[in-house]
Amino acid sequence: LYTPSPVAMVNPGGFSGLRKAFLDAEQETYNAAVEDNRAADTLADIQRRYFKRFPLSLPFSEEPTEEFLNSVDDAAPDPELKPPSKDMSPEAFARAQRVYEFEVKELKMRKAQIKRRLQYVHNKTKNQQAAYSMGSVDDPMAVLMSKLTGISLHRPRLKTAYNLWGPENRAEAALRSAIYKECFDALPEEQKKAWALRAEAEHNESLRKVEDALKAGPSTSPVDRQKVINCLPKFIEPLLDLIADHTGWKLSVIAGGPEPADGGRLNVISIHSGVTSGSVKMNYGRSERIAYKEHVMTSFGRFLTKCYPVQECRERALQTGHDIMGLAELATQHGIEVHSVPNGEDDELQSRSRGPTPLNSRPATPVPDTPAGVAGPPQPPPTMVTSSPVNAPSPSSATAAPQISTAPVINKPSPQPLPGSITVPDLQNLPVQKGKGKKRKSTAAPASASKKRKTTSGGSSSTAAASSTPTRPIWVSNPLELFRSKQLGGEWDLLVSNWFNLEESSEFTGNAKLGTRSRPRIIGEWIQRARTPNFDPYFDVLRRDGDFEPLRLLGPNGLVNFIGALFFWGCAVQGKSAEIKSDWMDTLKEVAYAIRQLL
User: Fold this and answer.
1) Could you give the CA distance from residue 588 to residue 493 in angstroms, rounded to a whole number?
2) What ranges does the record list as Low complexity composition bias (predicted)?
3) Exposed/middle/buried for 185, CB within 10 Å: 0-12, 13-18, 19+?
4) Are residues 95 and 242 in the same domain?
5) Quick one: what percent of the chain has pLDDT higher than 70?
6) Is the Cβ–Cβ distance between 418 and 309 less than 8 Å?
7) Does residue 146 share a domain with residue 166?
8) Is the model's pLDDT at 414 over the cut of 50?
């Protein structure tokens, strides 16, 4: 048996040598995974590859050979840790059982060590503490705690005149503080009085700063607000537990709004006290996770979007250069729940903010530029939104089909402020909101850039008038132009053509809405020009059931979002391996099959 020498022994709680080098190399991967909310999957993969290079059979103080490391294949299946067979002799079985139990414990311990190390280094790089000091008048959380608890801030002490004089006259007092008083007493009376008055003035100034900090209103600086937000868990949890102990009740606190460290996105924090009875203890958020997320978080998210205009969310975002920990990082440390307001709220706001331009109005003149049947890809429409002026000088230009903009128009006198969005810096497609009224039925066609065009009962509007305005809603024309921007193959073109024909069959009047449960996040972020998505289809189950009517979700919040997810996914896999492309192609066929059943 191998017995390590005392010189070779290392701290069992730390990693060194090649083990440390491996984990250091994987740290950036883990940090990125934490930012993308996929830390658990990445951690499992790092642990798997670690044990391929440093198996349990290798003593912790011994390094693997370079030849062994070069032979490691990460794609190969991992060996199973199996218990010994009972067919062997009792002595051999007992020995093998001890080895097996040791390896199980060793595996569990090393996995926990790897997890703790990666988390520790990640948190250390943030270099932020969600704490406060009662001795600082510049700490907003300290000021808040003093107001709530009545505990005074640490007030500055009055310095004696000779202690104030000494540091500025060290040349005359070589032994510094030991002879400060002796040298100070040798000064003329006028100078001693002047130093005493100065000490009193500086003390009064320090007291004034403390009083001003307590009397002044809360700081509106994004940095100060983020510091207070980060302290909420440590501040609220003890209060909830104390109230729960004295009342015997269960308590929950929900707080939300624009988070400066997250770019002004609307985030919600949930803190619960009290758990269920039984052997498995769960608080309110975990016990009722689905209902809590679908109903409580959804309704509270709608409330937040009514409270925070887009511009206010943008102004609350931290400027670049600040390295302040946000709620997402704190959630992994303290076990709190952090939710983002569903991006689907932006879709509703976009639909409501279209004003007097009805999405369900029928064109006065038949539109000749639709895709030619199912067999071919859709052709570019001649009356795209880009053909009309973006900044029309007419005051009634807000009634025309809205243009794509990197920021919402909120300086009009009549619209109400637009509610806040999740991804404030990348917001788009939010036109001017003209009111909260319900969608009107088709009584008028879209207006031109100069003035409204009235429709007649006989549809006698001229062809020129019809061609001067967009003949399709912007939620159709913009995605259609985007879906044509890249060549993804004939099957993709056929899918887009079938989707367009399906929407056109309802005359673009669909108003169905997809739910947010199990929906890829990229759907909402696509509307705001966000990152590449990861699409998880569920059409195969519906195809086996044979009923595709639940998928007849037409309109701006329906199937167009599925097509958008497929488009972004297809762009991401271009140039990748055939295996990666095959996943996208299989999903494309599933979606195309489902849409064909709806035609």
Assistant:
1) 11
2) 384-408, 456-471
3) exposed
4) no
5) 58
6) yes
7) yes
8) no
131: enclosing H helix or E strand: none
- How many residues comprise the chain? 599
DSSP sequence for 406-432: SS-----SSSPPPBP-SS-TT------
Which of 72, 95, 126 finishes a domain? 126
- In tens, the pLDDT along 428-465 reads 333 333 333 444 444 344 433 333 344 443 443 433 33
pLDDT in tens, 322-380: 667 777 776 655 556 777 775 443 444 334 333 333 333 333 334 334 443 333 444 44
Q: Is 257 left (phi over 0), alpha (psi -120 to 50) or beta?
A: left
Distance CA 421, CA 349 (A): 10
Number of domains comprising the chain: 4
Q: How many CB atoms lie within 10 A of CB 192?
A: 16
Q: Kindly state the helix (H) or strand (E) to which residue 272 belongs, with its residue range.
A: strand 265-273
Q: Of 126, 148, 173, which residue sits at a domain end?
A: 126
180 and 241 belong to one structural domain? no
Q: Is residue 402 within 8 Å of 432, Cβ to Cβ?
A: yes
Residue 150 lies in domain: 140-215
CA 83, 84, 85: angle at the middle one, nearest 5?
A: 120
The answer to the question of residue 131 being in a domain is: no
Cβ-contact 428, 422 below 8 angstroms: no
- Shared domain check, 170 and 103: no
Q: Are residues 323 and 270 in the same domain?
A: yes
> Do residues 331 and 428 both lie within one domain?
no
Same domain, residue pair 408 and 433: yes
Q: Phi, psi (5° rounding) for residue 193?
A: -65, -40
Q: Taking the model in full, what pTM does it have?
A: 0.33
Q: How large is the angle between the packed helices 578-598 and 490-505, nearest 10 degrees?
A: 30
Clarify whether residues 105 and 11 are in a common domain.
yes
